[in-house]
């Protein structure tokens, strides 16, 4: 039974992935900031598979390192790391952007991913096996107006994934990225700071991806035989052709 650590596991893509992997016999380490949701998840999915949860904010590097280091013995060997925690904050031209929003995106999407990776990779290197999947974005492949810093953070994820794959190549550690386009999650609600009406409009007039669609892709990626690495996969809904080309009703 493989052990999979998922960050940002309490909502969206992370949650759908946790639910799918629980049904498919993976041992899960679910990480997130919301203790209550983590406890609910542990109860809900604990009936299906072995679960432990880690409450942390990926920005807290000491806490991240400490909690991963002190995992219970049954969960100490991590076969797969899914760096999923990520957020967008604001959608503004660069001259109107907020420094707090920029900090949040860079700290969570880029530095948080690095902190968790730093805590997990050494044991994979030691064993000469393991898999890291970073959740990128179409925003890591092309830049769109007003998304400058978010796109910058996801381009960083793209570059970091490529570099990680090279650096970890001698240790047979598989590294890849899954880059979703528009997925119907609370992503836009967070981006627009709780303005649900504006958030919902983002997904109106076409069928966006659902978190379950990306969970399927992640399950596929981690269930490949050891010689197969899904290195870089961009997934869009049929209505989307690029960040700004969308076939809406
Ligand atoms: C999410 C996709 O188009 O909002 O990463 O940047 S988009």
Question: Could you name the key traits of this structure?
Answer:
oxidoreductase; alpha/beta; 249 residues; SDR_fam; NAD(P)-bd_dom_sf; 7-stranded parallel β-sheet; oxidoreductase activity, acting on the CH-OH group of donors, NAD or NADP as acceptor; binds 2-hydroxyethylsulfonic acid; Sc_DH/Rdtase_CS; Rossmann fold
Quick synopsis:
With 249 residues, this protein is an alpha/beta fold. The protein has one domain (3-246): NAD(P)-binding Rossmann-like Domain (Rossmann fold, 3-Layer(aba) Sandwich), CATH 3.40.50.
Notes on the protein architecture:
The chain is α/β, with parallel strands linked by helices. It has one domain: NAD(P)-binding Rossmann-like Domain (Rossmann fold), CATH 3.40.50. 43% of the residues lie in helices and 15% in strands. The chain is built from eight helices and seven strands. Strands 3-2-1-4-5-6-7 form a seven-stranded parallel β-sheet, sandwiched between helices. The protein is globular. The mean pLDDT is 97. The site of 2-hydroxyethylsulfonic acid has 8 residues, from loops. 2-hydroxyethylsulfonic acid binds next to loops. It holds the Pfam family adh_short. GO terms for molecular function: oxidoreductase activity, acting on the CH-OH group of donors, NAD or NADP as acceptor. This is NAD(P)-dependent oxidoreductase.
